[in-house]
Amino acid sequence: MTAVAKVAVDGWMIAWRNLLHVRRSVDWAFAAVVQPVMFVLLFGFVFGGLLGGAAYREYLLAGILVQTLAFNSAFTVIGLSTDLRKGFIDRLRSLPMSGVSVMVGRTLSDLAVSVVAMLVTCLCGLLIGWRVRGSVLDAVLAFLVLLVFAFAMSWIGALIGLVSPSPEAAQSAGLIWLTPLTFVSSGFVPEESMPGPLRVIAEWNPLTAVINAVRGLFGNTVPGLDVVSGSWPDDHALAYAWLSSLLIVAVFVPLSMRAYRRVAAR
Question: What is the pTM (predicted TM-score) of this model?
């Protein structure tokens, strides 16, 4: 068996183990499935009447999807930190298994959870009137952008989980930076409605790029809420979304692997 095939097989075994653990964890299931539904209903109906009703709900869904996938990186954070503290990583060290397999298995299992959360969010969106207005190919590309983004975010979560001193600290560290990042974006309101400094941050926020790209591919742009700022990230949202996700992977994969080797050597 080649090295790549062994990493794939071992990574799949780790991913399957993690998915079985998620299935038995009620709080994880709640966070992955119920939480995005609550956000869709809360923002769609509580604020939707003020911001545009049914049109705003279509505009909103791309933001909820990206927010959900970003928050799901906390599964990687908590999962890795818990495995470290409970000695699971130590047991894996006694097996002929590379650290790459462990990390790949962790991120793939959390990507599977993100897929479920994404499907549930889309179904909820369909129930409240959201529709894909673009072509089938555009919709497929939109979901591909979302999956690559979710995979990239899981590697950020992996690094945080590996360097956190405890699962409790990991949970806080995995979420505290995401809340401002998701709200200072075009997920809920256009960047143009924000004051100067926040507007610039929102325009260059990678989440904004993914949201704008997905929103455009779904055909969910809304008159009055469309991005017309003329900045480079807004004018090249799809390219910036791909670039941001790939850059995150390129930076955080080696950092996470180095952190894994450091904690595994203790």
Answer: 0.89
